[in-house]
Amino acid sequence: MVDRLLTIGVYGFTETAFFQQLAEAQVDLFCDLRSRRGMRGKQYAFVNSAYLQEALRQRGIRYLHLKELAPSDAIREAQKIADRRQRISKQQRETLDDAFIERYQRERLATLDLPALIAKLENAHRPCLFCVERLPSACHRSLAAKFLSSHLGVEIQHLLP
Fold this sequence. Notes:
The protein has about 160 residues and is an alpha/beta fold. It contains six helices and five strands, in the order βαβαβαααβαβ.
């Protein structure tokens, strides 16, 4: 039974610090909310899917890809437009645009098979929702966490670098 819901991004972490945060928070289920599970460049290569899954397995943390919680290309495009309008990069973003939030809630959360998703979390005590953005407020994982925590009746803890 879930006793706390956690979230984590990768920007700002080193590989060592990232896995140390997961261990200290006693994460037992790592939920990848990305549709594309790869990163460009060496700095964050440790969260490329195959490497990440093996690193988690070695640490006794189960891995689960929850693609149904990943924003579609169309939803992501709404945020890209807002970022361009504000002249900021994805890594500089501090909050999500209202258009993104509305579309994500309508197209992902409102259509989610909630009982099936909760069943996937059934044996976890400390699941952690993962995407790349540093700040939860700049990432869809915060929307998914808020939605799930309201249905599970648990607190959210955001792990930050």
